[in-house]
Amino acid sequence: MLNEHELRRMVVSEMHLRRWPQVRAPASIVQFVRLLDPADREEELAAMRVLPSAGPIAAGVRPRHLDGTLAPGLVFTWERHSEASTTTLFVAGGRGPGPALADALTWAGSLPGKVIRASRVQLVEDEASALALLPELGFASDDLVTCLVGHDAGDAVRARIWSDFRLREDGFGLVLVAACGMAPAPLSRTLQRLQELGNYRNLALLGLPVAREGWRALDRIEGELAEVNRRVALPEVTDDDLLEDLTRLSMQLVREGSAADYRMSATQAYATIVEERLAELHIRAVPGCLSLADFTQRRFLPAVRTCAAHRRRAEQLAQRTAQVLSLLRARIETRIENQNGRLLASMERSASRQLRLQQLVEGLSVVAVSYYALGLVAKMLEGLEELVPAIHAHVATAALALPVLGAVWFAIHRMKRRILGPEEHALREKDAG
User: Buried-most residue among 277, 287, 344, 350 (CB within 10 A)?
Assistant: First the structure.
């Protein structure tokens, strides 16, 4: 037994195409595309587990693709995508409604989720049959799209399609396809690509309402940001008010980005798939008629560009908000530096005054100590004068005044040098100078 990674089989299964069963004209195809939330997915899986024609589904298994037969000539496929599921019914022979088909439509229509696309494909053998059927389908002539599509660029035989891409009263879109002699295998692949083109087009367009709504929010945020940018240059506006406004705008941008980013990313991804499917259909225009490529370029691409523009604008506004925040930060830092400079200057003046006052006190201390020292010396000399009349106490005291003053000054400075250290003492002497 292999010690398999738990995701190995899922990864391998993703590499295999979910091909449709081979379709032969005449036939009809009905397809539902639904958006599902997590609760809907569980309910949908439960509905698939009780469907005998899909084969047994083991408990705990979450398949992404199922197919089966609902009745003779009536088969179905079901596929789960990232945020949607598709259910497709294939009716052989193109016969009209019958009990089996009615039951199948009821079952497919009752599956959980919200329908984002419901379409019918009517397949006939050739263009003559299609042109005969065309008046009955009620296509709008102003919006009629028709062109040739093929499985390969080198196909000599191509199918032809007609559609106005409008919803009918029953809520379905309608596409008429003439097989024109295409073999079942390439015809089935072409029809699958055609349906995937429409499905991913609708999924991509889900981002357009979000982009339009978000565009108005971005207009408002941009206006407020311009006002904040103007107020940054006004000295009377406080930094706290500016920071509060910028923080509020940043939070609004974050909320707007969080609400729209997933949808815009999904739109971009779906649009890429639409472009791939459009290229894979190898469309050939019919002279004088609007082709599927023209229709897509005129209607779909502008919507995708609007979504892309919304995303770019949100990113640019975030960058501009960061720039304004940088300006505000520079303003605050400059103000703090100026305050620090004034504080340092004030501290320097205070320290200088304290140093001068200290030197004054030191000078007075030298005088006071010298005065008391000379007083002691004078007392001693007066006593000696009684014993030695040749000694004149007052004269000797006067002679010793300067030496005593110098000795006291030298002693005090030597003591300061020992306490402060040579370097700090020299620095203070320099500052005093």
Answer: 277
